[in-house]
Amino acid sequence: MKIHIIGGGNLGGAVAIGLAQFTLDNTITVTRRNVKLIEHLQQYGIAIAADNTKGIAVADVIILAIKPWQVDTVLDEVLPHLSGKIIASAVSGVTLGHLNKKVGGTNTVVRIMPNIAAQYGASATCISAEASDIAKLQPISDLFDKVGTAVIIDEKLMDAATVLGACGTAFALRYIRASMQAGIEIGFDAKTALAIAAQTALGATEMLLKENAHPEQLIDKVTTPQGCTIAGLNEMEHEGFSSSLIKGIKTSLKKIKE
Ligand SMILES: NC(=O)c1ccc[n+]([C@@H]2O[C@H](COP(=O)([O-])OP(=O)(O)OC[C@H]3O[C@@H](n4cnc5c(N)ncnc54)[C@H](OP(=O)(O)O)[C@@H]3O)[C@@H](O)[C@H]2O)c1
Questions:
Q1: Which end of the chain is more exposed for a tag (fewer CB within 10 A), N or C?
Q2: What residues does each domain of the chain span?
Q3: Mean pLDDT across the chain, nearest whole number?
């Protein structure tokens, strides 16, 4: 497929590099107005441009990775070149209804919510479309399965997907940072503490996904009765570990809906 990503920022750049590295037979173009800032993408075989309409006529898929307030202007600009294409919008908060009203007709419109780990083939991507377009989702779902995991969801869960899957990257990183800081306090230098904390989080995730297990099943394997793990874990829960995470995720969702 010919994939044209409009908005080569944090997300657009990460998705472009992921698709270039983990999918075959696709050609990728990324645009942003300050094209100098995406010159590094060329080393992955990605074409870059400052003009959104350049080459867009031959694209099969247009991925929107711009800010919500830029959507209408950009769509007005590219509308004459869009006929028959799949428009995949990663823009949070802009609904299928709004997008379909702007570009509906011969185009298939889907919403995607990837995260920046797409760059390393490890995004959790949620995808949704109107019922009439669900059958046409497959190429997008296949594409994002190659840069991680793609899940098709109801659009009403898109805000929740943004919080759990996209904001979730920051939540997971803050967990690792806290572990690292604790590691320093119990004797490691910063570099070693980070290496141990990050690899331990990666290892826990690998086990969870490979064994298709519930977290508590694996926790049972590392908690010896009266041992140090359960003592630490329960102390964290007394201090509100799970509760603060749940509250934070609910606060993010409330904020996104404002
Ligand atoms: N970051 C994430 O983890 C993440 C995850 C999921 C979804 N999202 C969504 O993805 C969208 C982009 O987020 P982001 O974090 O990547 O923002 P960002 O880093 O600010 O990227 C937006 C990019 O759009 C470019 N842009 C602005 N106007 C343009 C135009 N007229 N034509 C072409 N490019 C244009 C900007 O570059 P120039 O100013 O140089 O044009 C900028 O590079 C947002 O709607 C966000 O909600 C982000």
A1: C
A2: 2-153, 162-257
A3: 96
